[in-house]
Structure formats: structure tokens, C-alpha cells
Amino acid sequence: MSITITVYGAEKKCASCVNLPSALETKDWLEALLNRKYENQPLAFEYIDIENPEAGHEEFARYIIDDDRMYPLVTINGDIVAEGNPKLKDIYAKIDHLAS
Questions:
Q1: Which residue has the higher pLDDT, 12 or 73?
Q2: How many CB atoms lie within 10 A of CB 64?
Q3: Rounded CA separation 59/70 (Å)
Q4: Closest CA to 24 of 2, 46, 3, 42
Q5: 31-36 contacts: CB < 8 A, separation 24 or more?
Q6: What is the C-alpha to C-alpha distance for residues 43 and 22, in angstroms, rounded to an integer?
Q7: Span 16-23, average pLDDT
Q8: Where is pLDDT greater, at 1 or 18?
Q9: How far apart are CA 46 and CA 17, in angstroms?
């Protein structure tokens, strides 16, 4: 099964996340970490700028902005698994569930 990890964020960090890595840095970190941990599992990674979303992501980007969600916001196959400072335990649990 294909697993897609999407990290939503913006160049400007959210007010609650000032001391955390940027959303793009979070995506790069997760990609390196998860590709090592799940080397036999096909993982796809994408970064979506909520201020200039790619086609198909406009509605969800607007939802993040309108609902004051913290970012980076991480989804796996469309399910939200992390907001702000991602917890690896939650991300691992979701991937393990999908991979089984």
C-alpha cells in the first residue's frame, strides 16, 4: 500500500511554533527519518504551502488558516496525525497500522 505523508505549513511560522523548525524543515526531517525506519515501505512525501497551495489542496489549506490550526500540520493518507510539534510515536503508529 502506498503511504503519502503531507506536511502543510507556511514560510512564516505560526505564533505557537516560533521555536520549532519550519514546516519545510519538518518535512525534510520526517522524510529522512521515515525513509530510514521504513526502508522497505514505499513512502511519498509532499510539502504544501498553505499560503500558496497546489491544485487540490486549496480547501484544506483554507481550513488550516480559517480554523487557526497549528502548523506544520502533518497528514498521512489524508488523516491528520500531528499539529505543531509532531510526535513520532503517533506517526509511527499510523504508518505501522497502514503497512500491516
A1: 73
A2: 22
A3: 16
A4: 46
A5: 31/5, 33/88, 34/5, 34/91, 34/95
A6: 21
A7: 76
A8: 1
A9: 20
Residue count (the chain) = 100
pLDDT (tens digit, 9 = 90+) per residue, 55-92?
999 999 999 999 989 889 999 999 999 998 899 999 99
63 by DSSP, 3-state: which? helix
- Determine contact, residues 74/82, Cβ cutoff 8 Å: yes
Cell of 42: 514505499
φ/ψ of 38, rounded to 5, equals -115, 55
Cβ–Cβ < 8 Å for 84, 16: yes
DSSP letter assigned to residue 86: -
Record the pTM. 0.92
